[in-house]
Structure formats: structure tokens, C-alpha cells
Amino acid sequence: MAPASETLPAGARVIVIGAGIVGCSAAYHLATLGWSDIVVLDQGPLFVTGGSTSHAPGLMFQVNASKMMCELARYSVELYSRLQLDGQPVFHGVGGLEVASTSERWEELKRKQGHALSWGLEAHLIGRDEIKRHVPMISADRLHGAIFVPSDGVASATRVAAALAEGARDRASFFGDTGVTGIEVSGGRVRGVTTTRGRIAADTVLLSAGIWGPLIGRMAGVPIPLQPVQHLMATTAPLPELKGQPGEISQPIVRHQDRSMYFRQRGERYLIGAYRHEPLLVEPEDLATRWDGRMPSTVPFNEEAFRPSHQYAIELFPGMRGVPLEEKVNGLFSFTPDTHSLIGESLDVRGFWVAEAVWITHGGGAGRVVAEWMTQGVPSLDLHEADLNRFYPHVFSRPYIRERGAQNYREVYDIIHPLQQMEHPRNLRLAPYHQRFKEQGAVFFEAAGWERPQWYEANEQWLASGHKPVRRGWSARYSSPIVEAEHRAARERVVVFDATPFTKLEVEGRGALAFLQRIAANQMDHPIGKVTYTAMLNDRGGIECDLTVTRIDQDRFWVVTGGGVGMHDLAWIRRQMPADGSVHLTNLTSGICCIGLWGPAARELLQAVTAEDVSNRAFPYLTARRLTVGFVPAFAIRISYVGELGWEIYAPTEYGLTLWDSLWRAGQALGVTALGGGAFDSLRLEKGYRLWGADIHSEYNPYEAGIGFAVRVNKGDFSGRAALLRAKQEGIARKLTCLTVDDDTVMMGKEPILSHGEVVGFVTSANYGYTVGKSIVYGYLPLELSVAGRQVEVQYFGERHSATVVREPLFDPDMMRLKDLPGASPDTAAGRPEPALETFMRRG
């Protein structure tokens, strides 16, 4: 059994709160990476009872639409497979089956198998006979098939935790029956932890307390958005079909997601897990009284809620009919507002780290990456989906956390379209001209709390007959042919776009320039009014942010980044700030609205509403200046994420409605059209503009991503420079590459790319280019395959589609349209030589 310690030390290098699967994994990996004086605390007996780990069913299904989650699961399986406790394994790699009883689920499993291939995980689609071979007692007659992952399996959660603790024993001490009563914080930093057994001084704390996370976080002044939820499981009495079955488990684990259920063998018995009931929530405050030494993370079993699931179990496993249920558990675990984990260091309390909302499937990997982050400054995996600091303030309200936690429980096994929208809560953040969107019949998508038009029904008037992309069935949901009309309006006339959700930051102070020079890869020392695209890199050269910086004054800069990743970028920039007070960072987003004005007629429209000269000579590309638009004092940046002549026009929010109306009235004679997010994405992909979080993130460097043009290694030292110099010397092995799908099938993203039957990459972005008339995908390919003309295949819903590597960008490669140069025309497209990647890229 794992080690337990008796004497509480006066101080520690790091205190880990929670000795469940995540806390023990973190301690193990911190020790492996060289840290010592690690103290792990748990309010209950170690590795016996207490938190969610104690009642975890242990099923490890690794396939996930998120590469991050799949990678965490794959590493966890690898780690658990190596562990033993008392000479016995703690993981059984019996394989995993996910069955489909509907045609919709069968199609989803085809897509899921593509995800597995993309992430390097072996997975097979199998038929009824193969299902029966793996699990003889299953009723497969009504099943369409299943996905089988040979490396899935079952982990004994408490034994895994104990084995990890055993592996850390030389550098870590574990203390059970030690409740945390307070977190000491002063000067914005952790100073120590008080417990029921005394105080421990430490300037680093890792919270991995599971369902108690919100309560412990509150002690430090750090909000932890978790919703504890009840979850029902029951184990049958011995089944005749399993009589004499050797060992604890020999059959694959099973998920029946059409019925929101999972199953695993327990010797001669079967465990049944059920999500098919209305969410049963528990308030974090109620957990404060739930410590009596006996399974405080369980509540009384709800027979009524479990009854339908028991009947569904009998449908799939007829041998369960008439067999009573013996052990029944109603255990608590947590959901976050977006279902992903919470990993990282608090932005407001330095030294307070979090690894929460992590299931056993991902526990080994989560412990590893948080330990890497703590000890090395950069994790080996891009974690933006799990970043503790990703949320906007509204997410931390208790009603929001409750509502999203409940809905995420309902949808845990649903077939979720990548563009599927949450229904509640909505209308939290509205642009000042939101009513105008509604008048145009906007179909709203939610992002970071903002209501953002995806397309406008009023624009159906602009829809012309012609070539249509191949979007089939389920994948065509949340789309509209109107997107094409809006796309063409941007290329042929002029459009207005709601850019208010862009995150707008102000960096100012006597040290502002030096600060930006240090954290940005591009040259920041430009004249006032100059706009610069840059990446911000970690020490390994990975792209942490990509954004634009405009010099407003000598010691004042505007940083504009995407709304969806605004909090991530804000947190990253804040962490780099000097402590001497020479730099101030302010989030201006809520106080400033923004309208994108783009298209061949953009200058004509803008000139009609301003007295200032907006000609090429007076207002060149990538410059900024103040303008008066009608009656509105504005600030305009000549820039375009859609690849057309145009501006982003900023104004105080209270002027927003007047600004919109002024542009709309003046644009009527020019055919002005409101542009939605659907066309915005197709336009940017035609132009080859990268999207952070998909095409680029911290696992890729600028040379691999094709944005080396925005790096100035000769400007002096900056974050990531040494890594980039090594990359230039050693060369790169992969490159973000543009492909067109030969039969014009429009992909959804994350599909595997194959060459001669071998997976060589995956799709990072996909859409249809209405101007170039092609289905476009981007993905990282080995250099030898990223040559124009090479043929590869993309697997989409189980079918292979040929694709051709092409030069990028497909649209306006010489940037004549963007810079409004002589000779630019609406049909400027592919066929010219690639201009050394001198394209301008910024995410929206």
C-alpha cells in the first residue's frame, strides 16, 4: 500500500490538496521532474474513501473529438499500464466498445473513428458478429455496429492513486485525515495552508480536490466554476452467463450512448452506469457538511431515476433480466460550464495552481501536464481548452454554472454537432446595434457570451443560382446557402461585420515598448499609427497568441485579438508583465464597439460618411488614424481578415448604433450587406488566414505555421527567440499546408489525412471557398508531402476523398485586393506564384 506520513512539516515546496487520482498523479510527476518536499493532503483516509476517485467506475474510453483530451487519455493508459501495486496490475487493457443502435449514431462512430486516426489512436469499426465475439452476452441484432479501441480498458482508481503515491514516496509525503481550513494569501501570492493539524508554509499550492474545489478555491479568492452532479451506478448479482469467469474483467468495456449508459464486467457481475435522467445537482456549499468519514462524495441512491436505465440495460444484455441489483452507488462528480477540465495557475493569486474536473480517464495525463507547467513553465501539450483562465466573468455566476453543468450532464453522450449552440443562458452580451441584427433576420451563434450573427435571413435576396458545395445530411446542420450570398457580397460589393466581440487591450506606460518587444516575435518599434501582426511565443517557440498591435502614441499601444480566446491572451500577457509598474494593461473591450467595413466599395462608402481623406495615399494599408464617421468620433485601422480592402472602425460603445446606421444608410446605393460569421470563416480560409486554437497554437512554431514573415530574430532578444534560432538551424519537419478536395466535399475539421494508407496529418480548418470554387482544407503535413500537386486522401465519415496540395493563398496571392492596387479584380484567385508567404494573418 502507498505511503502515509505522520508528522506535518512546517513548510513545503508545494502543497497538493486532494489525494485522488489527479493529486497523486501530479505529485508523481512533480517528483519525476525533480521537485522534492512535496506535501499531499486529503481530508479522509488515504486511497480508501472520500472523493470521486473512491467510487469511479474506472472505464477508460480514449477517443475524443478534442485532441487534447485524447492525448491526456492515451498517456493515462500508458502510465497506468506500467504501474503495479503489491505486485498486481492496476489497469486491465481489455478494449472498449461503443455500440450504435441508430443510423445517426453509426454515422457518428464513423466520424469518431476518424478522430481516433487523426490523434494516432488505433480504432476499428466492426459489425454485429465481431461485437458478439468480444461480448457474447450482448444482444447485437438491432445494432448497426460499433467502434472498437483495443487499448481501452478499466483502471482501479484508488489502486492507481496508491501506486502513483508509492512511486513518489522518495520526494513526497502524504497526509490523510487532514482537512484544509484556509489558504494564506498576501501580496497577490500564496504563502501557506492552514489545516486541521496545523499550518504549512508554501508559496505553491495545487488544488485537486474534485467536488470540493469551489470551496477550497474560495479560501484563496479564486473562483472555481464547477457544478457537482449526482451519478447513478449499480452492480448486478452474479449472472449465469458469467459463472466461473476467471479474474475481475476479461471482456471489453461497453458504452451504449444512444441510451446514455456504460457497462463493465466485474467478475461474474456487471456494473451499469446511467446518465439517462434529469441532472441531480448538489450545491458546493452543501458539501461543507458532508464529512463523516464515510464516502462523503456519495448520496442516497435514486431508485426512480435509475429504473429506466435498468430496463435499457436488459434490452442490451437480456441475461440481466430477473437478476437483482446488489451494490448501488450515487456518486458525485463535477462538470464545468464547457465540459473541459480546469488546469493552470490563477491569474490573480500567483502560486495557486488548479487541476480540477478531471476524470480517471485523463488523470494521469492531467497530472503530467500540470507538473510540466509548474516545473518547466510550458506543458508539452497545448491546453487552451482546459486553461483555468479561459472564462469571461459571467461564467462564474452560480446560476450560469448550475445551468451549464446541468445541460452538460444531459448531453454527455449526445451526438453534438461542432456548431451546435447552447440554448441557455443566452443574450448575455449584446452589441449596441443588436436590434439591427434582429431586423435583418440574424441567426445568432453564441461565443464568449456574445450573440454573434452567423448569417442574416434578409440576405436571401442576394442568393443567386450556381455551384453549391457538397454538404450532406447531418453535417449540413447549422449552415445556410445564404452564407454564399454574404461571401460574394464581400468579394463583389461591400459588407459590414460586427467585430465588437474582438478583445481590445491597451498596453501603456514608460516600459510599454520594451515590454512588447520582449514578448512579441515581430518588430514593435514602429511609428505612431503603424499596425503590426505578431505572434507571442513561449520559451519553446510555440505560438501562445497571435494578434495585432497598433502604436497609438509613444508609450501607448492597442492589442486586438479574438473574442473567443481573449481571456486566454489577456492572462498570458499579464503573466509576462514587469513588476516595476512601468507597464499598465487595460481591457477596453466592453467600452469600445467595432464594425468591420470590407469589400471593393469599402473606400467609397467610408469616404461618403467622413470628411477625412481615406485614399491609399492618405490612409495606407496597416495604418491607423482617427476619423469622424458622420457624427461619431472613431478610430479606424486599415486591416481586413477577409482579404479585401477595408477597415475596422472603433468607437465608444454608446455611439455604436449611430455608427452602424450611418454606414448602413450610406451603403444602400452600393449594395451594402451585413456579413455573418459563416461567410467570415469561408473568406478567411480562401485567403489562408490562420485561426488560433485550430491552425496554430502552442504546439506549433511560426515557421511550421507559415507565419515566419512575422518574426524578426534580429531585433534583439524576445520570448522564444532561442528556440526559433534552433528551428532555423535544424529545419522543420512539417508545414501547415493548403489542400483542395477533388470532389468538392466540404469537411468539418479534425479528419485524418492519409498518404498511401498511412495517416500523415489531420484537418485543422475546413470550409468551402465560394470565390475560388473549391472545398478547402488545411493541415500539417510532412515537408515531402507539402509540395503543390501532391495527392493525398482525407477520410470523412469513413470514406476516403482524394485531395490535392495547392499553393496558398488561393485568393489574391499578390494582395492586390487587400492593398487596393491597380489591376485588382473580383475574380483574383489562384494560379500565381506564392509570394513567399507575405500574407497577413490574424484570427477573428
Strand percentage lies at: 25-35%
Strand order of the largest sheet: 8-9-7-17-18-19-16-21-20
What's the story with the biggest beta sheet? 9 strands, mixed
Q: How many runs of DSSP E, i.e. beta strands?
A: 42
Number of discrete helical segments: 21
CA-atom Rg in angstroms: 28 Å
Return residue spans where pLDDT drops below 50 for at least 5 consecutive residues. Answer: 827-844
**What is the end-to-end distance?**
52 Å
**What portion of residues is helical?**
10-25%
Look at the structure and give the mean pLDDT.
Answer: 93
Structural class by helix and strand composition: alpha+beta
Q: So what's the overall shape?
A: globular
Provide tags for this entry.
9-stranded mixed β-sheet; 21 helices; single chain; 6-stranded mixed β-sheet; alpha+beta; 844 residues; disordered C terminus
Care to describe what's here?
The chain has 844 residues and is α+β, with helices and mostly antiparallel strands. It contains 21 helices and 42 strands. It has a nine-stranded mixed beta sheet, sandwiched between helices. The chain has a six-stranded mixed beta sheet with strand order 11-2-1-15-23-22, with helices on both faces. A hairpin with a 2-residue loop joins strand 4 and strand 5. Helix 1 (21-32) runs parallel beside helix 6 (157-167) and helix 13 (482-492) packs across helix 18 (677-686). It is globular and about 85 Å long. The two termini are 52 Å apart. Residues 827-844 have low confidence and may be disordered.
